[in-house]
Amino acid sequence: MKVLIVCPKCNQMYFEGNTAFGAPTIHSVPITDNGICIFTCERGHTTSTLFTQPKFEVLCEVAAQAIVDGYFRDAVASFAAALERAMEFYCRVIFNTRGKDDEFNLAWNPLDKSSERQFGFFHAVFSMENSKKVPALNDGKKGTQFRNKVVHKGYIPAKAETVEFGQTIVDLIIEIIAPLHTKYAASVSNVTEALLPPRAERPSSRSYNRSLFEWQQTGERFPTLKLSTFIERESEQKKHVAFSNFLAGFPPTPGSSLALPRTDCS
Q1: What residues contact residue 164 under an 8 Å CB cut-off, 6+ apart?
Q2: pTM over 0.90
């Protein structure tokens, strides 16, 4: 996945009045699996930033960006993986509330390569914690059948099918994760922190690339955009970045301003 970043040093220079080189350029930079993003701007400033959102959130944004770029099969696979990682996150949090992190690892590691066994584990943990139906994809043509058809049989889905499947996944993740922020906020923080790279490998700069998921401190999910609207916004933002970088080559006129994207290395 790529995120939009403005070099913080160039940004500081610009807002301190050093506009000889124009506005800072917006960079589209890939994030590695461990969430660390390293890039060097055109003026030689190297920035290292750790993005701290859980893997399931990252995968949902990967899927949304894949839809914007027209890679619908990739999007379906990423959405499916996001749901599995949300289920794992849920189980980790529940075990953490009981001080059983080591026990979780012992139980989960043998299931690491089996999605069906992982779902069975999640099903058991969720059932013990809640007195309601376990959130899961349905077995119909728009649920697991659709996922398997795409992932295992090589079916190339249309955009509308992909967006509908993605919205289903996002809704399921909300149903699974949102209550944790109400009941077990401390454990959510503990697990999120534990899944980050070792402290010795972490850069000092951190960022949270807010996108589809905006969790409120109360645990209620912030009323966010529908997936289809979010995708439209991402597409427009790509055009904005290209135009902004074009403008960045020119000194700003008095009173003008350049809207920077939502993600920065501050």
Answers
A1: 142
A2: no
